[in-house]
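Researcher: Structure prediction, please.
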Amino acid sequence: MRRTAQYLSARPFRVRLSCVNAVHSTCYRAAVSVGGYGTLVRPPVTAIPLGISVRVLHTSGMLHLFQPPVTNAKPIGKDSTGSVGTKASSGEAVGNSAGETRASVAVERDPGEIPVYRVVSHVARHLWPHGEPKYRALVVCSVACVVLAKVLKVAVPFWFKTIVDALTDAGGIAGNPVTVASALQLSVFGLVTAYGVSRLVSSLTEEMKSALFAPVGCHTSTTMAIELFAKLHSLDLQYHLGRETGVLSKDLDRGSRAFWSLAHALLFMVVPTAFEVILVCMVMRSCAGVPFIMTALAAVASYIAWTYVVSNWRAEYRARFNKLDSRVSGLTVDSLLNYETVKYFGKEKYEEERLRHETTCMNYQLMRLDQSMSLLNFGQQAIFVLAAVTSLYLSTCGVLSGTMSVGDLVLVDALLMQLYTPLSFLGMIYREVQASTQNMQAMIALLDIENTVQEQVDAKPLEFKDGTIEMRNVTFAFSDPGDSRVILRDLSFTVPGGSTVAIVGPSGSGKSTIFRLIYRFYDPLAGSVLIDGQPLTELQLKSFRKVIGVIPQDTVLFNETLRYNICYGCLDATEEDMIRAAQVAGIHDSIMKMSDKYDTIVGERGLKLSGGEKQRIAIARIVLSDPKILLADEATAALDSMTEMHVMQRLRETGGRRRTLILIAHRLTTIKDADIIFVIDSRGTLCESGKHEALLQSGGLYSELWSKQLHDNPKHDTKVS
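Model: Predicted structure follows.
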């Protein structure tokens, strides 16, 4: 462990490490935080038991694994997979059936640690899409238009110089005045025409560039949005439980806008501006001489250096502003989502003060950004004013000495202005690129997150038989450093295929966690979960998830119609199927009383419906999807007894045969007819199992819960508090 920590101290990672003792149910945790300056901040890790194996979930570089030997280990035989494990002595950690404790190291990249080349590479990959020759051709044409526009822009001052020289030299032309005037008019007219055509074609190519690139921009924006959307849906449940919706949406919005800003800046501003500077310097060298080009180059170098130094100084303010901006967005969304709670406790003023405090902090950073921007702009203006005055002095001396014409003076001044225009944009572009890079780094850090629940490369599809589910020596604890509870301890039970099984226990005993393990939202720290004898870790996720239906305890609906929410369980369901499912759930009559019936919008998270109505919609949705295995967490808590009995009968069957049904219920009358009842105690261990009557006679925890409900609610349904 010391070797691992020493190695990590040299890496710019934040590392979380968690380890669980499966025998004594003692959770050992250590957080290793590695700063960007090579400083290792580490709480004591001596409590971590020997015999752990460290598994790296994500890292951009090599991370050497270190597995200390297990002392005083004794063989415990072979597990179901045929591997031989060990059993540590008292006080040491014992893990899964193979005899090891699994400790996961979750490496979370800080956005600031994403190198700039990763950002540029990400932008380039989307601008030059693989297998899309149409969009590649449009990019090439757009760049060609930009190059042509820059060449014509540099030519414009040259035409202007020629016109001035022609008019200046008119007085010195000898010959017939009429002939001289006609020739002069013809010459000037041609020069003015060339000047106008150059400017017109330059503007045309600029607009053509935008028109040609528009399809590429739309395509890349769509691709990027879908990539981010798919990534978010692929992330673990634990990630989503720990994220603030407002902060996440703000980060994604800034990331999407930053992608477009970077793409446009790199393709149409940075490279073309560099090309234009080179062209201007070449023209100035041939027409004005070395002193002028040295003045121009000195101005360009000073401008870039000033912009770089001040912009880097401003980056700290930008990072703080982005963080506070996300915080304000998250606080606002969270407060509005909890509108009822705010009203119930009369905390409107408190929420306003919270928002005012965060907004004040954010605006302070914004003020510092604006002030530093003023300093940056003044310095840029001063550099070019000094360069313009110097060049004007040199060209004036040249005209007076006869080495330069008036047209040359005009050309030098115009070329300097030609330089100032793109460089002034370049300063703005650099600031924008810097801000966009920071936003893109946050987005790439999101794309870099590796799931703790991963599908094996050689994972096989589920071979469904009868839906038998087995929990084998399962130990589970959350990997959040702030939550050190062990939820389940060495839990083992079997649910026969086609049976109805209930899981009962006090609140916080891990009943809902069992469902999430079966669906493989989480992996156990020790032990395994199997369906029809096949470990979930060896199966393709979609293959077993498609046969499992879940009615969660907290039903959340889409902000769509009732029709959409019910048919979400089976998108190709007919109208008759939808109505039949709603009737089974006992919600059809209530829907028909609504003004828009099945086209009624339910509101965000279904807030326009009551808790009972939302639960019935969830039941209708699961009836329509008709899964072979059903996990129901308090599925009928809001239903009356008659409706509950009818619904339970429908939930037990699928396709004319009994489905595997696992129920979680606090109201014990709901599950008293179950084939098997598993009783979980407050420590997360299985303390009893059997049928209702047998459990009552045993006088254990189930009997206590039943008696307590009878005592608390003698005239009502029996219910565990």
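Model: The longest strand covers residues 486-495.
Researcher: Thanks, that helps.
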